[in-house]
Amino acid sequence: MVKNKNLVGRSSHSSTRKLKKASSQTASTKDLTPLDDPASSDISAALPELQISEQGQLGFPDKVYLLASVIFQNNCSEKPAAQRLVNYGKERGIPLPEVKDDELQRTAYELAFSTLKYQELLEDIMVDSGFYLTQPLPDDQMGLVAVMLYDFQDRKFLPWEHQEKEEIIQEVREVETCLLRFKTKLAASLARCRIKHDLLSIQCILPESVKMKQERSSSLPLYTWVNTLKSSRDEVQSVLKSAGFSQVKSVGQLEGQTFCEDIHCWDILVFPALLKAQLYSTKLLSEHKLIIQDKACSLGPHAVCSVLPEEGDVLMVGCFSGLTVAHTASLISEKHKSNSTNNQPTVYVCVSDRTDTQREELQQAVSAMGCKNVKLVTEVFQSLTGGDKRLQKVRVVLLTPKCSLSAVSNPVEFILQENADTDLLQDLSQGSVAQSKLEALVAQQTKDIDHALKFPKVLAVVYSTCSSYSEENKEVVNRALEQAKACSEQEGEPKQASFRPSLYLFNIPSRAEDPKETDPYFILEPSEHNNGCFLAILIREPEAVVKEAPQEVLARANAKGILDKISCNQPTRKEHQRHTNRMTKMSHVHTSQPNLSVSIQSKNQQIKGSNSTALCGHQEFNRHQLSQGKSKALRLQGLKNTMPISFLSSRQGNNSSSPFKPENSTPTKSSTPVFITPTFTTTTLPPAPPSATPVVRPRKAHQEELKPVVLVLPPVHFPDFFPPQHSRTGFSPSFNYSKWRTPSQTVPRSSGGLVKDIMVKSRPLF
Q1: Could you point out which of 169, 254, 416, 603 has its C-alpha 20 to 30 Å from the C-alpha of 762?
Q2: What is the model's pTM?
């Protein structure tokens, strides 16, 4: 027989009393106060163990009542002494009796949670009926009385019917006997309370938030994810269809033996809540190919997988189960399945707050699901730094801190599966979290996210909660980002990376319809189809690349004595451009040819050596030919001795490298090649001096495309040596050379007009 030392033998007179089961167990219902409760309790609806026999109604095993009473006593609300109706003793933090059966443990937590929700109502019944003042039970057993009284009224005050081989716990049977003796008075007190408050059912006394969650919990579908380390989605769906399941398009269409795919996560399959037994019959659950887990726990691993680079590890910190660890590992393995090196990323799990038993259970659960890339870290997260050799390749941190679970509709099941804080049961049973407890949670969340952002090689931090309070969600994240930015800008402190919230990475149809949606955080609101969730993906911003000017590089190098004091006082590009323009203008004003008119196309490039514009006549032409290369100069020199100069000026190639760039040049938009038409007062050109010194151009820092140039020189007066028989070439004795335009006339600035004017006035020679 299992006994709890804290509950057994606390009262000498209660242990010595010889109690017998009342013979009125099979009494008719006339001795009872009938309560027409239209809504059955969440316990009786959720637990198939509650059965009805001919004499009474089968309840729970004694160890379930005992475990539920300890959970209730550790979490019940305690009022001031002046307002206290029932005293539950001074003991808190009582160790839980060992129950190896997970289903019985879940049943005990559900029973304790329901008792917490109706604590005030149950206390009123105990006081109004006189049970609390007349029954010889110690205060330490009043927690057991409250738990069994809730179950007693839930069964319409029908007596318990125990199984033959059931384990007997004496304390439970003593409380049962006292309640059966007071069953009529207890039922009458409940009836008076319902009449007083006009309650159609006892659920009406609950706060609205608690009633809403209770209604949602009864309709929540069953979420599962495919373990890609054991199977694939196609294989699982094939097995389901062969077992009689049919696939539908959405969660709203789930009815009967059906399933559907989730809209956010590709590996999640959703089933109606009552198909758990049918899923076990397919052996998908027993073979760990399909894992039952709430959807809110699957969004974080999917976000991690989406931002993880090819070579990078993951660090998991916070409150989660081995199922979440295995899901993260399976998604990463699936993503890197095509990696030829077979070097899978490692999932590091911080388990500093777990007991040795919990660590062993986590490792066993991960191994059972085929995960080989998981390693446990026993150090406290705050003590871990970027210098840790194990964490050198960590690029993503998944942070799921302890939160209020205010967005969860079925908190008991969630707490048990995800290893959450059971101390939240009392707050969740009343529909709100105490301010002091909320502040403590926020303080720890802030500390964790601040530390996660300090890792120098981390590229992303995924922050996830199941809370509906903005204090735990947006406010924590925004405050952490501001703190990180302030530290990065503060002088004298180690520079901290700058992070920014990234847009949600999943395909959300609702957001696609709203282009104005700018919230970078993902918030899954709690509903009848899912629990709530908050998700933030913080991405490291790339560091800005600062480009130094050449003068700054030289100055810094000279300061270190690297370049032997190379001059760095070179003028900047703008200063050099202004100097070149000024020298060009001065040279143009003092030129020796008063009739020289230059029209030039230029946009950005200024050519050095502006003193060359002072040359005129033959020297000007020869200098231009030298800049074009020796080949052009030789070809032009041979042609000028065999034909008139006018032919030389009729067609010229596009000159894109002219050294001339006067100040008063006008850009042109014409794409027609520009012709250079030089005219001279002599018929022949003297050869270039053999000792002419080539123009030495300074080295250019940046080569830019040059624009074509139009150069107009003074007119040439031809002598009368052309014979009349040459009229077939285009010249005639009556050719009037005075009609040629002189430089004194205004030259149009339009490039198109200038070229057109030259082409019209210059008649072909042949």
Answers
A1: 603
A2: 0.65
